[in-house]
User: Fold these one by one.
Assistant:
Number 1:
Amino acid sequence: MRKSVTTTVAMLAVGSLTLTGCGQKNQSNPNAGKGGGTTSKSAPLQDLNIKSRDEVKDGGTVRFSIETLPTTWNALHIDGDTVDLGTTIRGFVGANNFDIAEDGTPKPDTDYLQSYDVQTNGGKQVVTLHLNPKARWNSGRTIDYTDYQATWKANNGANEDFKMASSDGFNQIESVKKGDKDTDVVITYKTTYPDWTATWSSVMPKEGVDTPETFNNGWKQFKPEWFTGPFTLDRIDQAQKTLYLKRNPNWWGEKAKLDTVSFRAMDPATKSKAFANKEIDVVDDIITKDAYESARKRDDGELRQAGSTQWRHITFNAKSGPLQDKNVRQAIAKGLDRESIARSDLAGLPVDAASVMLGNHFFMPGQNGYTDNSGGSKYDPEAAKKQLDEAGWKSNGGTRTKDGKQLVINYSLLTGVPTSDNEGQLFKQDMEKIGVKVNFVNTPPDDMSKVLTSHSFDTISFTWQGTPYPMANVRQIYGAKAEGSKQPSEANYSQLIDPRIEKLIPQVDTEMDVKKRQELANEADKAIWDDVMTLPLYRRIKFTGVPKNLANMGAYTFQTTRAEDIGYLK
């Protein structure tokens, strides 16, 4: 399962909480990932087989795989903040205001947003969206300013009954009003806000977000009237766990090249074999040797690769047991050989593990703004032992004790997910060397969101998938629910609220000078490393299996393609 770092762009091009881990367990190998393979620097930004519509034939189907059918179809809800829904499915049936270029630059998708104006008046940024008057929901109602107004009110954090994934961006808005006509949306910010296109990359229908009850519970079933785009619902086969889409007769844009699209919920371990056997047409996030080798067996297929914004990490619950002590968290970070974990996870993949080690919570290696801030968490087991000694956890050659209690940490091991198992085993081995006992808590993957949101864990590893807006979501994972709140954000699973970070968030949110903003984000990153809220492991290289003649689909870092343009070459 993948978890998004959510601005509304997560519904289009970027995602979510990832529970990826298909194939057999990777064996630890100190030489794996060394001396060859794709590096963070050499990975292309996209491998999508971009073709014009004239080169793509009409008709056909593409069968995608997902991990589970959504439990809610509201991608802005904390439980709907997944890549499966936010990116894979909603790319075909959701409103999309911007196309994202190869370098991450947004450009209006004129089917929804004809143009926009940005002005600053008295220190306040005013954005006016000129919507396409032809754009409408499947109910037949025109998309207008009232949808933007309702989306803002549901997600700005003012009413905590709305269980939104993040208030980032929305909480910077002072008002959303009608312009000269209903399809002109005037958005006034409290101050400047450079990432406004992230917040408004999509919008939700007012009927689905007007009350907390509807926002939280009204999306349990797929309601076609609350969606839009070149495709619409055909049927859902619960027995086969498959969602089927067909061309949308109400679509006002270019006719979709494909006749139909389907999304089948599958065990991640079976996806590559299903692709090789031509049971599905797209296998995404190939992350193990077995999956890689299996996918290569398809005779009419190929693997496309690019950099990605996905990154593996360990989240620490800083309100649980011994982890409440920052010294313990810091010692654990120093005692963990992160590069060995990367080499083991990536064994058998054509990736240079050393090059994808991650020293930042916001920027990927090679990205403008990237600085390795992990210095205090570098692998140093002797320093880890010393810090635990100083924190009062004494060693007698085995598990450390303090006040008669052993130093025991639970690791939530996602059952049937080899990456989680592999990382857990290596985590346990390294912790034993510094006197920390690790117990495994077997956790069904379907329970992962519940475990995270209920904070019923000590440590857990999973994948965050970022966005083209690396500085837009500091509060979502690392801050309070709202400025001045004493409650952590819904996705701040560490539960820590650090005054240093809280002071920096408004500055990062509003600074218009890119270099200065990057410096502020890196100051926040240093505090996150110091707190050990999450411990980054490595950045993933993206491998996607597709038929060789499939156009406008594949692997990418930032770039999006339009659903109506995906199809097979003539």
Number 2:
Amino acid sequence: MPQDVVDKRDAILRAAGKVFAERGYHATGISDIARELGAGHGTFYRYFKNKEDIARSVVARALGQVMDAIADEDPGSSQSLEQYREQVGRIGHKLFDLVVAEPALCRILFYDAIAIDRAEPELAGRAMEAAAQYTAAFIHNGQDRGFLRRDLDAHVVGLAVNGMILTGAVRLLHAQDPQAMRDPWIRTVETLMFDGLGSS
């Protein structure tokens, strides 16, 4: 694909993502995106079929940004408990920083992804499953090295850990002081992973 086409598509997706995040998918029209971009309606139809096509691409772009944020973390790299804890903390901080830096991206993923695609209503489910498999790879490494209990289903644990991360991210979007939430939230998730809720 020529670079000018890539650049134009990216500009449209950035504008659409901003408007979807502000107005919501259903309340957004092509005219709203055109106004944000400063372009005519015809520009969109040279690159996308319709609003739904743009929205699917916005979600895919947002998911790609999430994965890019933690792409340098190898699930099998930690060889000691200290390294493992540090890696979990790094991932938490990277995801936290992404939510703070890209609130529009996160609002799309958290609130609009399910509503966006009538043709592929399982889009959000597939994304959650892929995220669970990614997290499960880290859990498997912890189990294999004896840092985590081996009797637990790594895939289910991955879903549970991601659920905690998702809940924290949603709260961050509405927090008056996101920075004040960061360390307590990450520390609590780490404690649940490594120590559980037992008092002894």
